[in-house]
Amino acid sequence: MRAVGVIVEYNPFHNGHHYHLQQSRKLTGSNAVVAVMSGHFLQRGEPAMWDKWTRTRMALAGGCDLVIELPVAYATQAAEWFAYGSVSLLEATGIVDAFCFGTESGQLAPLQMAAKLMADEPPAFKTLLKEQLATGTSYPSAFSASVTAYLGEQGYNEFAKFPFAMPNHTLALHYLLALNRIKGKMEPFTIAREGSQYNQNTITDREIASATALRKLLIDSQSIEKIRSYIPSTIFSIAEQSWNDGLPPISWDNYIRPLIHAILTKSPAQLAELHELSEGLEYRIVNSMPNLTSADFEQLIALLKTKRYTRTKLQRSLLSIFLEHRKSDFSPDKLASGVQYIRVLGFSEKGRQLLKRMRTTATLPILMSAARPPERYRYLEMDIQASNAYMLGVPGSDLSTSMYRDYRDKPIFG
User: Fold this and answer.
1) What are the residue ranges spanned by the domains of the chain?
2) What's the topology of domain 3-105+191-250+338-413?
3) Does the pLDDT at position 6 exceed 60?
4) What is the pLDDT of residues 320-352, one digit of tens each?
5) 403, exposed or middle or buried, with CB in 10 Å at 0-12, 13-18, 19+?
6) Which of 47, 266, 327, 336 sits at 20 to 30 Å (Cα–Cα) from 77?
7) Residue 394 in contact with residue 247, Cβ under 8 Å?
8) pLDDT digits (tens, 9 = 90+) for 81-102
9) Model confidence at 292: pLDDT above 60
10) Which pTM was predicted?
11) Which H, E and C letters describe 374-399, residue by residue?
């Protein structure tokens, strides 16, 4: 059985994701899909709209055969470490032959060339990146500009014209860099995005909308019906059932009061010990609090945002405060050592066969439950803590059943 890997958040799963899965199978000649999926908190530093178990059910209903959790230590990171953790996990299964990701252009060659040249972080590129950051620009913009400049300096003028700054191109480049760095054997493929672009917050297509636009539509309208035409019917049924059970989509507003409490009870020096807090951001956060007039996440972001601090950077920083993620857990050496385990969230009948093969091919322990891991894993502890913190924001949740679900819940079969 040939398997293709995908790296997903499904926040929420929509028609574009369904198209991506179909094309991934077709393009790679695979008949099974392995998904590495972020848990309760996501790459842009925000809570998932639905918990990871609900989104696992959506993934299986949408065509995935095996769903593996990307630990929160990688899931909430910028592109470099998000990609490294995801690609490392797919490679560690030993059963994934190819992996497929979406890009704005659908072109792989420029990305592969850039990844090959930059895999060892050449000094000339580091110098260019340092110069770009010194201008006060954000890291993503500085990185893409440095890639373009470096390729030009190396004589690859054709590839230097490639739009590396586009969000999916940037992420794809980091996937390929990760594959090079771990000396992975998976074959990469890419598919051009259809209908809408990443982070597009308006809907311009009758059937395909970005996850960003769908989240905005749900929150603004407070009506699950508004997204019916943009997600597969099987996925809509799961979302509708969750909605009818009194579990509407989650947003940062569900956590604003505990977040404010976490900020108010820390000094700038204490905040500076947390991941993503650096270069004086801790002072900006503390000094902005007296100007906050209501428990409103958007107002807090507006008070903090500058040209240097993008919304995504600020969300990741605030998430580190909320989850108390310390710098000591995110050193490059620790992150580069890779994920310590393969946590299974769900599987289909094909997925069951894949798991059987993984018993002999996987290079990491396979966890079907968090209750009794082979040894104590720090990143698993962080996942459990993140799950418990997430449940505090779920309206009307019974803490006696929602807390420590990681210890009790078995992988979902569907």
Assistant:
1) 3-105+191-250+338-413, 253-329
2) Rossmann fold (3.40.50)
3) yes
4) 999 999 999 999 999 998 889 999 999 999 999
5) middle
6) 266
7) yes
8) 999 999 999 999 999 999 999 9
9) yes
10) 0.92
11) CCCCHHHHHHHHHHHHHHCCCCCCCH
Q: Is the pLDDT of residue 204 over 70?
A: no
DSSP 331-344: -HHHHHT--S-EEE
* Three-state DSSP state, 171: helix
SS3 for 308? coil
**Residue 373 reports pLDDT greater than 80:** no
How far is Cα 185 from Cα 182, in angstroms, rounded to an integer? 9
Residue with more model confidence, 187 or 146: 187
Which tens digit of pLDDT belongs to each residue from 226-264? 889 999 999 999 999 998 888 888 999 999 999 999 999
Instruction: Name the packing angle between helices 281-288 and 311-323 (round to 10°).
Output: 80
Q: Which residues have CB under 8 Å from 410's CB, separation 6+? A: 368, 369
CB atoms within 10 A of CB 129: 19
Which pLDDT band, with edges at 50, 70 and 90, does 3 fall under?
very high
**How many distinct helices (H) and strands (E) make up the chain?**
21, 8
Pairing of strands 342-347, 66-70: antiparallel
Which helix H or strand E contains 38, and what residues bound it?
A: strand 32-38
The pLDDT, as a whole number, for residue 321 is: 98
CA end-to-end distance (rounded Å), the chain: 19
**DSSP string covering 221-271:** H--GGGGGGGS-HHHHHHHHHHHHTT-PPP-GGGGHHHHHHHHHT--HHHH
What is residue 199's DSSP assignment?
T
HSE-up (13 A, CA, CB side) for residue 387: 25
Tell me which amino acid residue 128 is: L
**CB of 338 within 8 A of CB of 88?**
yes
**Whole-angstrom Cα Rg for the chain:** 21
